Amino acid sequence: MSQWLGLEELWGTIKGEATAAARTQPELSSFFHSHVLKHQDLGAALAFGLAMRLASRHLPAIILHELIESVMQAKPAIVEAAGRDIQAYYERDAACVEYVSPLLYFKGFHALQGYRIAHQLWCDQRKLMALYIQSQMASVLDVDIHPAAQIGWGVFIDHATGVVIGETSIIEDDVSLLHGVTLGGSGCGVRHPHVEAGVTISAGAKLLGNIRIGHHTVIGAGSLVLESMPPNATVVGVPAKVVNKPKQA
Predict the structure, then answer these.
(1) Residue 1 has what pLDDT?
(2) Residue 201 contacts by C-beta under 8 Å, 6 or more apart in sequence?
(3) Which residues have CB under 8 Å from 235's CB, separation 6+?
(4) pLDDT < 50 regions, the chain
(5) N or C: which end of the chain has fewer CB within 10 A?
(6) Sign of dihedral through CA atoms 37, 74, 63, 146?
């Protein structure tokens, strides 16, 4: 990722984009106002948007909104992580031409931020609530991320439909995943993959077991990865094999 913009500059840009959109798309002006313009910062907008998307008859939006806000207040780093994720979408997704788009429309971004709330609840020993949010994300967004998984910042999940990330998975910073990716388990204990920084995992790839994917490696679409892979490699096939000579880091 390029230099981090910072939350203040990012939020100013998002509000400017939403203001312009409300002028050119007056039919959606109330939508832009309720999801962006009425809020004082990114955290407030994010809490509102997540509550609206993940609410249910068992957990109404007003209660979920209060819960999300309380988690963000106790753990402000969640909001910075969300900001860095937005910047990752803008920089890596050719279809993302405005910073406001992930916040409003991209379910991969929404699922990732829902995970961040659930993960903090899990760490706070509120595991049943964390699992409830995970279940809602799976139902509403078709993305299943276990709240115990460890996921870094600047992560980009494109399209996101069918993504599954298991309990002991570790995803470091600046990783990109496409739709249909599975980080699945095998065995007991630590049973899911560890994906190092800068890795790209293409559509439909399945990574299974306690394996490690070296930094900046690219996993080809539809690959089945059953063993650890070196850094700076290109990996394809069923089962997956390295198809280039990895460059020296």
Answers:
(1) 67
(2) 175, 176, 177, 178, 181, 195, 207, 213, 219
(3) 213, 217, 218, 219, 220, 223, 225, 229, 241, 242, 243
(4) none
(5) C
(6) positive
